[in-house]
Amino acid sequence: MRRLINQRPNGVSAPLLGALPFILLLLVYIVASQARLAENPNDKLLPGLNSLVSAIQQVATEPDKRSGALILWRDTAASLVRLGTGVAISALAALLFGIATGALPYARATLSPFIAALALIPPLAILPVLFIVFGLGETSKIVLIVFGIAPFIMRDVAMRVGELPGEQIIKAQTLGANSWQLILRVITPQILPRLLDAVRLALGAAWLFLIAAEAIAAEDGLGYRIFLVRRYLAMDLILPYVAWITLLAFLTDWLLRVANAKLFPWYQGGARRS
Questions:
Q1: Sign (positive or negative) of CA dihedral 92, 96, 99, 105
Q2: What is the pLDDT of residue 38?
Q3: Which of 146, 159, 176, 230 is deepest in the core (most CB within 10 A)?
Q4: Could you give the number of structural domains in the chain?
C-alpha cells in the first residue's frame, strides 16, 4: 500500500502543481470580473484583463508627459535601491551582532535584552519619529527597513551560532585557536548560509516597511504609485503593480536561494530546501 506521505511529484507534475493555484486564482478573477462588467461596463473594482494589460503597458513603455521617464521602471529602480540598501545594512549588522551575541557570553548578556526589546517595537509605530529625526528623504525609509528586520535577523543568527556543534569549538581551542580565530574561521563560514536563509525569510517584512514608507512620503517608488492612484480607484494599475511587486519579491528570494546553493553547496546538502 502506497501511503500519501511517501508519494512525491515527479519532474513534470511538480511545476504543474506549483502553477495550479495561480491558474485557479486567475480563473476566479476572470469569472468575477466578467460578472461585474456585465452588470456595469464602467466598473472599476475588477477591470478586465485588457484594461490591466493596457495600463501596465502604458506606464512601462510610454514616457511620462511631465518628467519624460518611464514610470514603471523609475518606480522599480527607486524601490529596489531602497530595499537593497536596507537589507544589506540589516544583513551586515546581523552578521556582526548576531555572531557576537551567539558566541561571546559577555556580548550575549549585554546585547540580547536590548535586541529582544527592539524586536518587540512595532516598526510602523515609530515611522513618524523617523520622519522627524531623519526627514522625508531616503534615509528615513532605509532606516525603517533596517529597524524592522535587523533585530529579527540578529536573533536568528545568534540562535544558529548556539546550535553549532560544541565539539567543533572545543577541538578548535584544543588546537590553539583564540576567540578571534574561532569566530573568523569556525563560526562565520558556517553562519553565512544561515544568514542568507534568514534574509530570505525577512524579505516579506522588508517589502512591507518599504511600501509603507513610500506610501506616506515619497516622490517615486512602487508603494508611492499604488497609493497615488488609489484616490482615482485605478485598480487597472494597482493590481498590476501588486503583481509586479510579488514577482520582484519572488525573483529576489530565488536569487538568494541560488546564491546560497552556489556559494555553500555543503550547506544545501544537509538542509531542507524551502
A1: negative
A2: 87
A3: 146
A4: 1
CATH value at residue 201: 1.10.3720.10
One-letter amino acid of 23 = I
Triad 14, 17, 19: Cα angle to 5°: 110
Q: Which three cell numbers stand for residue 202?
A: 525577512
Containing structural domain, residue 244: 70-262
Is 116 within a domain?
Answer: yes
Residue carrying the nine cell digits 523609475: 74
Q: Is residue 43 part of a domain?
A: no
pLDDT value of residue 203: 94
Query: From the first residue on, what is the mean pLDDT of each consecutive set of 10 residues in the chain (274 residues)?
Result: 76 80 90 88 84 89 84 94 96 95 91 92 89 88 94 94 86 85 90 94 94 87 90 87 94 94 78 50
C-alpha cell recorded at residue 7: 508519494
Which pLDDT score is estimated for 266?
A: 84
In the prediction, which pLDDT does 273 show?
46
Quick check: 124 and 212 in contact, CB under 8 A? yes
Give Cα separations from 184 to 31, 105, 272 (angstroms): 58, 17, 26
